[in-house]
């Protein structure tokens, strides 16, 4: 059984094709690729098979339907493809960023689901519309194939009201759904589960703090197997310092900038979302470049790292207090998985919890990076959001198929 996983952006589509072994929970990636610069000059399609065989195609890709067609053609390529025909496809899973309060889990896509995703587009205007473009393109090309939506926000719908409500007039929530939603949920849920497995304990028995640290970043607290708080809020702007996002700010700062500099809403949004964070502090957004600059004596780069680490430490400390303890702290995503210096700096302030870093294990990026006698476990877990989407797609389609029998 083959499942196609699609992550559809405004000008790109990333995809992976999985082979699922029925009953064994085994998922093999047969191919992965990307359609890039959709609707822009210089469009490309590229695909890499699991054995390393590559395909590249160049030429105009005017819209998402043409991009999906191109992806399906590459998957069926006579020499370097992995599908004999489109009849081999069992289902398609989509990453959808914002499900609002409508979705607490992944769902089979139908007209009502599409309508709800469209309704929530005002909460994620840069993400939900292109997510829908991918869904619509598949409908037009393969109208009979089952499709599944997996939401970044769904896992955080278990947060209690005290965690997701803001100190605003209730009308703002009732009329405009202004509340904390959280993001990166697919990643947080996956690595929390993997950490529990690595520790040999049920997730529901653990208090876990997961740190998804990439160009975007967020921290989530899991108690009783559920997300009970997370650092991103109404939008992905809130929380820790990120690559280009400011993270938490005094709410009056944007108003101050508008009043004193005559900036528009869109200009202030650009400053906070695209010109802020590490980029705004030191002129660099990639932690590898920042680390190199620190070695060369760049003081602004060093300050950026200090601010980044401190913002993470504050959330870990807050969530340890919120849960009245913590059993494990998990690092994932590009920075979390690859930058041992950052992990060491973040964890050095948690000796008061009985946490002891194993220096060699951390430097070697091992799964467990704390000593055997550490009261709190530190772990590095590779995130795999596409696998989560494939699993949910297979599960939801299987449930419907079993009902037919």
TrEMBL record:
Write out the catalysed reaction.
Answer: acetate + ATP = acetyl phosphate + ADP
UniProt site (Transition state stabilizer): 184, 245
Q: Tell me one Pfam family matched here.
A: Acetate_kinase
Paste the cofactor note.
Mg(2+). Can also accept Mn(2+).
Its annotated pathway reads:
Metabolic intermediate biosynthesis; acetyl-CoA biosynthesis; acetyl-CoA from acetate: step 1/2
Where do the annotations place Mg(2+) binding? 7, 385
- Please list the residues that bind ATP: 14, 212-216, 286-288, 334-338
A cellular component term, taken from the record's GO annotations: cytoplasm
Active site per the UniProt annotation: 152 (proton donor/acceptor)
* Molecular function (Gene Ontology), one example: acetate kinase activity
> Keywords of this protein's UniProt record, alphabetized?
ATP-binding, Cytoplasm, Kinase, Magnesium, Metal-binding, Nucleotide-binding, Transferase
Asked if Lipid biosynthesis is a keyword of the record, the answer is no
GO terms of biological process kind: acetate metabolic process; acetyl-CoA biosynthetic process
Q: What does this protein do?
A: Catalyzes the formation of acetyl phosphate from acetate and ATP. Can also catalyze the reverse reaction.
User: What name does UniProt use for this protein?
Assistant: Acetate kinase
**Organism ancestry:** Bacteria, Pseudomonadati, Kiritimatiellota, Kiritimatiellia, Kiritimatiellales
């Amino acid at each position: 059984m083959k499942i196609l996983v699609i992550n559809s952006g405004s000008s790109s589509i990333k995809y992976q094709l999985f082979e699922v072994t029925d009953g064994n929970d085994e998922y093999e990636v047969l191919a992965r690729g990307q359609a890039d610069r959709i609707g822009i000059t210089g469009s490309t399609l590229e695909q890499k098979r699991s054995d390393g065989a590559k395909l590249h195609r160049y030429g105009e890709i005017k819209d998402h339907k043409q991009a999906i067609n191109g992806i399906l053609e590459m998957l069926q390529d006579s020499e370097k493809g992995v599908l004999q025909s489109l009849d081999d496809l069992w289902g398609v899973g989509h990453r959808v960023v914002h499900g609002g309060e409508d979705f607490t889990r992944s769902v089979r896509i139908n007209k009502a689901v599409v309508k709800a995703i469209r309704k929530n587009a005002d909460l994620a205007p840069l993400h939900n519309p292109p997510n829908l473009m991918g869904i619509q393109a598949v409908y037009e090309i393969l109208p009979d194939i089952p499709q599944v939506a997996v939401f970044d926000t769904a896992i955080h719908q278990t947060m209690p009201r005290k965690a997701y409500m803001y100190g605003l007039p209730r009308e703002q929530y009732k009329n405009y759904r202004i509340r904390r939603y959280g993001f990166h949920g697919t990643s947080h849920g996956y690595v929390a589960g993997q950490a529990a497995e690595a520790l040999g304990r049920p997730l529901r028995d653990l208090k876990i703090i997961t740190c998804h640290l990439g160009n975007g970043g967020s921290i989530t607290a899991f108690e009783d197997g559920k997300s009970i708080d997370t650092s991103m809020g109404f939008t992905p702007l809130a929380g820790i310092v990120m690559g280009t996002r400011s993270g938490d700010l005094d709410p009056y700062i944007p108003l101050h900038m508008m009043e004193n500099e005559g900036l528009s809403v869109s200009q202030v949004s650009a400053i906070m979302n695209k010109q802020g964070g590490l980029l705004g502090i030191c002129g660099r957004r990639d932690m590898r470049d920042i680390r190199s600059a620190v070695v060369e004596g760049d003081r602004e780069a060093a300050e950026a790292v200090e601010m980044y680490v401190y913002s993470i430490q504050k959330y870990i400390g807050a969530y340890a207090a919120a849960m009245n303890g913590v059993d494990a702290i998990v690092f994932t995503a590009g920075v979390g998985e690859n930058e041992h210096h950052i992990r060491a700096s973040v964890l050095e302030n948690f000796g008061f919890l009985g946490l002891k870093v194993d220096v060699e294990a951390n430097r070697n990026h091992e799964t467990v990076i704390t000593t055997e006698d550490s009261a709190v476990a530190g772990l590095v877990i590779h995130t795999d959001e596409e696998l989560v989407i494939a699993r949910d797609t297979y599960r939801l389609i299987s449930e419907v198929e079993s009902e037919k029998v």
